[in-house]
Amino acid sequence: MNKVFNSFLVLFLLLFSCKTDNASSISASDYEKASFHMSRTLNKHLNNVLTYQKWDDEDIFHYKVRFKEKTESFKINLKSLEKTDYNHTTKIETKKNIQVVKKNRNEFLSPNGKLAAYIEDFNLWIRNTKTGKRIQLTFDGEKDYGYATNNAGWIQSKGPVLKWSPKSDKIATFRQDARGVGEMYLTTTNVGHPKLQAWKYALPGDEKIFEIERLIIDIKSKKIIKLKMKNDFQRSTTTDHIAGRGGELLDTQWSEDSSKLAFISSSRDHKEAHLQIADSKTGNVYSLHKENVDTYYESGVRSENWKVLFESNEFIWYSEKDNWGHIYLYDLNTKKLKNRITSGNWLVRKVMHIDSDKREIIFTAGGKEKGNPYHVYMYKVNFDGNNLTCLTPEKGTHSINPSPNWNYFVTTYSTTKNAPKSILKDRDGKTLFQLSTSNTDELKENGWQEPIEFNVKARDEKTNLYGLLYLPSNYKKNEKYPVLNYIYPGPQSGSVGNYSFMVARRDFQALAELGFAVVAVDAMGTPGRSKSFHDAYYGNMGDNGLPDNIAAIKQLSKKYTSMDLTKVGIWGHSGGGFASTGALLRYPEFYDVAVSSSGNHDNRNYEADWGEKWQGLMQPVDLNIEDNNSEYDSRKTNYDSQANQLLVENLKGKLLIAHGMLDDNVPPSNTMLVVDELIKANKDFDLILFPNKRHGYGDLSNYMMRRKWDYFVKHLKGVEPPKEFSFD
Predict the structure, then answer these.
(1) 123 and 162 in one domain?
(2) Is 106 in contact with 118 (CB distance < 8 Å)?
(3) Nearest by Cα to 303 from 254, 364, 378, 372
(4) Which of 164, 433, 446, 719 yields a CA-CA distance of 20 to 30 A from 574?
(5) 30, 23 Cβ separation under 8 angstroms
(6) CATH code at position 533
(7) What gap in Å lies between CA 431 and CA 420, rounded to an integer?
């Protein structure tokens, strides 16, 4: 009897141990296989790709195509419509007599390339790029009160912020007044005394924030013309900075003769946009147009879509006053509306080109064509709104490269499933040359998995939401897969946003290969749709589109029944770090695990422009209420509802929170507020701090990714990850 029992016991233990060993770990080999499904590995397997394109002049176009084993170069002459193979030449011919101008990374070149503007000792200087001669333009700049200063708090640069006139004879810039603005402090980690990093960084509710004194500098006379107006708040209509690429001053436009400067002044809360024109000789300023909105004004989807047409005494204005982003034509003298240019339940994304002679506008838009509203198409329309024509009817998102005079353009278009195709067209949209059609055969042979593009209903059960679902390549309907939710809530962008072709989006498919169903959805509160869609949680940033993410996952699980809603994880970085921690605290019954990095967990500790645009100006909720016990909150405000640290008592799941200790975008105090309250509440959590790292983790990014994979594998799949796996 004992022998029989013992034999049975041994057999049982063997079977049990085999089952346990099989399911108790994921190997390094599994991680290696998963990591194959990332862009750094897959990009080389996409063939017939347009890799280079350049307009030598209006009629000469150069391009390169990468094939499987080689890259070939071509030239197209648009006058003769001849295509030349350049593969047997050592060098692509370019237009002669073009002077190559070298500049310092902190310089701003003039349009003619002869002058380079830069900052030295808080003053603005210019350098002659040919002779090297340097000329000082301003003389009274000082610390915290300097010229052309590139500091928005969350981002800084040593280069100047300005706008050169078309003739390179004038500069539009400002003097930034940061006197009295609060400071941000960070310290290095090192042996010995740490180095203090301190700079001006305004927060929501601060009495004093960045202001700018607008001015124009005449290069020849070196005269400084201060615009006769009150200081502007440092605000723009497209982003939370006044500096664009290269330091170009946003929301400004010169007349062709440099005699006038058009610009927009935005109120501190972004609810008013004021278009004005300044005389560059006198500094006199007159008002042209104002728009006031209940939430925030934007002049486009990350693009300025207003334009003053000085030659025809008109101006084009962008507005969402009918719930959709459209352009309008106004009379410059009377300031009255002449006519709408575009209309309908779709939006203008970017005004690309205005032809005053032909009275024609070329622009990109979304939502007008059938299908995914995030796909981007290009159109042209007359000033009077007639003859609206789609120039790129091919399905997908189009990226445009025009010739200098816009007589021709190259469009590269794709969808999440269909690889890029590149076409050269004329101004009327007629196809002249098929440049390249990307080939995915090698990708598929190497196991590439296309994402599943989906369309579900939002929290209101009416509004369409779009997103992407990633499933394992060996997906089996009868198995159960924990769900991972990637989130970047915006409100200035979404989790997906761009529905063009990518061999890989982040590590979405890689995580799917580890046995997860990965979901990314563009929730309400993100741009690219209607104004009401974008405004969905204005004044309530803690919402973060989470109700829509949950609604989407629940709907997807009805179709993909293998999705295990008893095991749901979420992750994100920056705004996504804020949202993913918030998900675990606000919806503990749905989300089980979160990996949150560099989150702005309380926007009272993040830069003023961000919170004051999306949450509103800080206001006390009740002046009569007694101060609470928190040392961080002396009174209750309208910002309490978004603060993650005030919700830590709700933590039930597993939380991994991370931050770079030299993060000068989202200061680490945002994470420390949450950490402090978690400790006080006696909550278990995991923390990674990256010494001397900024908002991104640089050479330690792979470490963070590995820890994220480990965290989800362990706490959602219940198995041990490979010990100290390295992606290197």
Answers:
(1) yes
(2) yes
(3) 364
(4) 719
(5) no
(6) 3.40.50.1820
(7) 16
